[in-house]
Structure formats: C-alpha cells, structure tokens
Write a structure and sequence with these properties.
The complex is a heterodimer of chains A (80) and B (214). Chain A contains 4 helices and 2 strands, in the order αββααα. Chain A is mostly helical and 80 residues long. The longest helix of chain A is centred in the N-terminal third of the chain and has 25 residues. The chains are: A mainly alpha (80), B alpha/beta (214).
Chain lengths: 80, 214
C-alpha cells in the first residue's frame, strides 16, 4: 500500500511539473524557434511534443527541469 | 604556420545558422592561420579525410549535427565515428565540435586516442532564433546570445590561448548573456530563451590537456 501511495505521489509530481513546463512553453512568443538536436521546433511544436511525451518532449522537459531545479537550488545565482 | 580545418554544412535551418555564424570565425582565422573551409557540399567524408591527411590541421572547428559517438557533415554524412579504429589520426590535435552530444562519448575517445583537447557538448547543443531573421542569421538578436559565446572557443584558441582559456572565455560570455536574459530589463523574447542557454552552459565540456594550444 505504501509503495502504491509513493508511486501515486511521484506520478502526481511529474504531472505537476509537466503542467509548469507547458505553461512556460505556452508563454513563449511565437516569433521564436528552438533548435534542439537535429531538428527545429516552433513554440506550438514544443508544446505538442511535451504533451505527447515523446522523445523530443522528454528532451524539452529535461531542459526545462534542469533550469527549474537549478533555479530552486540557487545554483543559477552562483553565476551572477 | 599552423592549419585549421573548418566544416560547416548547411542542409537545414539549424546547420544554416551555424554555417553563417562560422563565417566571422573563418575570416578571423584566415588572418592568423592557414584556414581550410569545407562549406556546404564540400563538408563530406571524402574531402574531410583528404584534408586531414594532406594538411595536418592542428585545430578542427566542426559544425553540424551529431550524436554521442558521431559528428556529421553535409546531409548528415558521418565525418568522425567513435567506432573508427584510426582515431589516433587526431593525435595532438585540438577539436572544437559545435554539435549535439559529441562530448559524451566521441570526445572522450578522441582524447584517449591522443587528441590534445576536445571542447564540445555532452548534451544537445541548443539555440533559439528569431523567425524574422531567417535570411539574416548574423543579425538575429536572439541567436547571438548562443552563437557569439560559442564562437569565442575557436577565436580564443586562434589568438594563442590555451584550451582552458577558450573554454572559460566561452563559459563566462554565456553566463554574462544569461544574466542579461533574466534581468528585469530583458524582453519577453529574451526571457523565454534563458532556460535553453542555461542548458548549453551545463552541456559544454572541455576534455584532455587544458593547457594545450594551437
């Protein structure tokens, strides 16, 4: 039971993070395009990939989560 | 005089931006070193191998797509593959690879095979561009936050500085740009790009002899 509760908590946390990332991406101006790996994506495409949870979406999540984690830990401010 | 070999394919939008942003580096290199520019269709495996053999470049500035174990040229033709047995042809050379993930496996293998130093990216090399500047990449006010600092690796090396000097100069410039992007005076477009530049700062790696020079 405890394990099931932990899994549910983790799943909820992942969904919350995904929501935060999607909100961030949706707020990006449409005048921008992002080159990641071997392809380029409009802001709408970034959102679609994260929503689909495909490989590109996972890369975008990784980029955004690293930023949010380093923002939370204060690592980002060490550079200023 | 030392030689430098540059590859800059341009078969899609991302490589086209790298193609154009490499030009200022090439112009600068030509003032100091014998510079060989494998641009567009010239950035193929046959030419690459031929130039390496004939001109013995001391420094490689390679642009394009890639993976953990490869760097590619025009139309994604593989130029260097970590599984090649003759990676020791790059012994004593310095390489700066502006492509995705080559710092993860390929860079390490090149250094183990004798390369003096390798600067690249252990994760995806990422940049954001402004769609209004598709035909004028060098004037793109957003892409410059990414590509100017990356150009500092080759220009700092060409000036005679060490690999660590070049790496640190690029890192400092990325961090300076990052601070500008997250400042209260930045535009919405600029703020939106900060997370992607932060990713590059963390992805860039220096492997090998930090004191090596061209």
């Amino acid at each position: 039971m405890k394990q099931q509760a932990r899994l549910k908590q983790t799943s909820n946390a992942s969904e919350e993070l995904k929501k935060i990332v999607l909100e961030r991406l949706k707020s990006m101006p449409e005048s921008l395009s992002v080159s990641i790996g071997n392809a380029e994506y409009t802001t709408d495409e970034l959102v679609e990939h994260v929503e689909d949870g495909d490989e590109v979406g996972k890369q975008i999540m990784e980029i955004q989560l690293q930023y949010l984690q380093d923002l939370g830990s204060g690592k980002i401010y060490d550079n200023e | 005089m030392s030689n430098v070999l540059v590859t800059r394919p341009n078969h899609d939008q991302a490589t086209d931006y790298l193609f154009h942003w490499s030009k200022p580096v090439i112009d600068f290199a030509k003032k100091h070193l014998q510079t060989f520019d494998l641009a567009s269709k010239k950035a193929n495996k046959k030419n690459f191998d031929s130039y390496v053999k004939a001109h013995d470049p001391k420094f490689f500035f390679l642009n394009g797509h890639g993976s953990e174990s490869t760097i590619t040229g025009q139309d994604n033709e593989i130029l260097i593959d970590a599984s090649e047995l003759n990676l020791n042809v790059f012994a004593d050379y310095i390489l700066y690879v502006r492509s995705c993930k080559s710092g993860k496996v390929l860079g390490d293998k090149l250094v183990k095979a004798g390369a003096s130093a390798f600067i690249g990216y252990k994760n995806n090399f990422t940049f954001v561009r402004h769609l209004d500047y598709t035909t004028r990449p060098l004037q793109d006010p957003i892409a410059k936050y990414f590509l100017e600092p990356s150009n500092l690796v080759p220009t700092t090396l060409i000036k005679g500085n060490s690999a660590s000097g070049a790496y640190n100069r690029s890192q400092q410039d990325m961090k300076r740009n990052f601070a500008m992007l997250v400042s209260s005076t930045s535009s919405k477009e600029e703020r939106s790009t900060a997370s992607f530049l932060w990713f590059n700062i963390n992805a860039q790696v220096l492997l090998g002899d930090m004191d090596s020079r061209i």
